Amino acid sequence: MPERIRIIVDGRELHVDRGVTVAAAMMNAGIRAFRQSVSGEARGPLCGMGVCMECRVTINREPHCRSCQTLCEDGMEVQTR
Amino acid sequence: MSAFDIAVVGAGPAGIAAACRAAENGARVVVIDDNPAPGGQIWRGEKSEPWIERFKRSGAVLERDTAVDERVRQRGAKLILATGARELFLPFPGWTLPGVTGVGGLQALIKSGLAVKGMRVVIAGSGPLLLAAASLARSKGAVVRLVAEQAPGGRVTGFAGALWRHPGKALQGAELILTLIGVRYDAGCFVEEACGEGQVEHVRVRRGERAWEEKCDLLAVGFGLVPNTELAALLGCDLDSGFVRTGDWQQTSVPGVYAAGELTGIGGVEKSLVEGEIAGLAAAGREADAERLFSRRASWKRFAARLQSAFALEPVLKKLAREDTCVCRCEDVPLSELKGRASWREAKLQTRCGMGSCQGRICGAATREILGWGADSVRPPAFPTKVRNLIESKSS
Ligand SMILES: Cc1cc2nc3c(=O)[nH]c(=O)nc-3n(C[C@H](O)[C@H](O)[C@H](O)COP(=O)(O)OP(=O)(O)OC[C@H]3O[C@@H](n4cnc5c(N)ncnc54)[C@H](O)[C@@H]3O)c2cc1C
Ligand code: FES
Fold first, then answer.
1. Where are the domains of chain A?
2. Does the distance separating the beta carbons of B198 and A66 come in below 8 Å?
3. pLDDT at B37
4. Ligand 2 pocket, A64 CB below 6 A?
């Protein structure tokens, strides 16, 4: 059994398996809007491989992190805007 | 003096095969990849792959989580580029809705923990990757509503026939089709629009005159692959129709620089492996051993050519975007602002298309397809190291 860890997305606590990316964890929690485009549209992961930048979120106060390339860590804080 | 005889960029099948053959012949080899684990697009994170086991025993050094730029030339006396490919996306109405992902994108998300159990999924676009994604999604409990292949049925069947000449592939294909029993696979149709409030809720599928709706929670759509030639271009390697030009030994036009795998032509894992082996052997001075692999390479190149013609894109797919359809997702540039521009360069200057954070990796290939802008005018730089470090430091 993979170890369960805890991340916080926009103040909401999510319990996830270690080894899961932030993008997958967020989608599993029903979150679809990861960022707002320059004209205000909701956007979410497209390429899943670090190329398109549509999955960008703020992680531990660092903006513009690609959630599809970032593994969840215990206590991680994520903001979608 | 470089610490290594050979530096390999990319730890996919091509890079791993190159590193194994070179290191096993005594060369000091470093393999650099921007991902946390070796394996490239196909074996990412798979622990049981024999080539990855062999790689671990080979003596080659892996440097992961590292994106490189042209300064990589200093890392080894010789350089082997094996940077692979990314997906081709063509804009259509609704493609920016959350829940619309790439086909390889859906695979990557599932492999990184996305739970699709019970989700309704439509998979659309073109090529064998559609079947691989459908099979993976289904094995994880997704309800695959439809696999919509744009190529007409005749072409797809012709390709399946041609697979007999490549026994390994035929087996793979058969396995895939078996796991897919019960999934609707329709050739000759495509998704013309994705619709929903805040996320995709249904798609409109079209075959000729007939159009219908399919409800879904996820739409995975991809139209084939685009080679990652940015680094090769920065190093001055000649390109030919968008791919890196290579000779018999997989050498590029720049002395001491070799290229192998998807960036020399899209052809799947076996072509990448054999090209990697040849490049690794040649770079390690084992030309005679490399030469023994030429006939195998020729065979996989023929397979690649069949693949390309079987799944060539129908012209209608390049006309799906409407005037108000977003083409550049980073800067929200609609098609109407791009029509009438003479070139990619002009579009960048006048509209900011391709100037956003993906640096034209998505819209560069898309505009090349839908607006016919020349391949050579699309040369986005490799990611600047600063941005990469910023983003990547989290994942190690
Ligand atoms: C999203 C996606 C999913 C795919 N899924 C399948 C599948 O399920 N089955 C199948 O048969 N084929 C699949 N393919 C096709 C696949 O490309 C080939 O089968 C095979 O993986 C190609 O091997 P390669 O070594 O040429 O390239 P890749 O496997 O693409 O390996 C290239 C590696 O280089 C790295 N890289 C690129 N640029 C840099 C840089 N500047 N610095 C550092 N590292 C860099 C990449 O991150 C990658 O790890 C997929 C392709 C894509 C794009
Ligand atoms: S989904 Fe494309 S970069 Fe993360």
1. 4-79
2. no
3. 83
4. no
Exposure of B301 in the CB half-sphere (CA atoms within 13 A):
12
CA distance B41 to B24: 24
Distance between CA atoms of B356 and B354, rounded to whole angstroms?
6
- Beta bridge mates, B251: B258
CATH for A4-79 is 3.10.20.440
pTM: 0.90
Tell me which ligand sits closest to the C-alpha of residue B129. Answer: 1
Euclidean distance between CA atoms B313 and B193, whole angstroms? 17
Q: Is 90 exceeded by the pLDDT of residue B380?
A: no
Q: Is B143 helix (H, G, I), strand (E, B) or coil?
A: strand
Q: And the tokens for B140?
A: 């994880």
Q: ipTM of this predicted complex?
A: 0.97
How much is the pLDDT for B290? 98
Residues 6+ apart with CB under 8 A from B186: B146, B147, B148, B149, B205, B207
Residue partners of B34: CB distance under 8 A and separation at least 6? A50, B65, B66, B67, B68, B388, B392
**Are the Cβ atoms of B394 and A37 closer than 8 angstroms?**
no
B179-221 pLDDT, tens digit each? 666 788 889 999 999 999 999 999 999 999 999 999 999 999 9
φ/ψ of residue B166, rounded to 5: -125, 80
Q: How far apart are CA B261 and CA B270, in angstroms?
A: 9
Q: Residue A17 and residue A71: Cα distance in Å, rounded? A: 10
- Looking up tokens 């409109």 gives B204
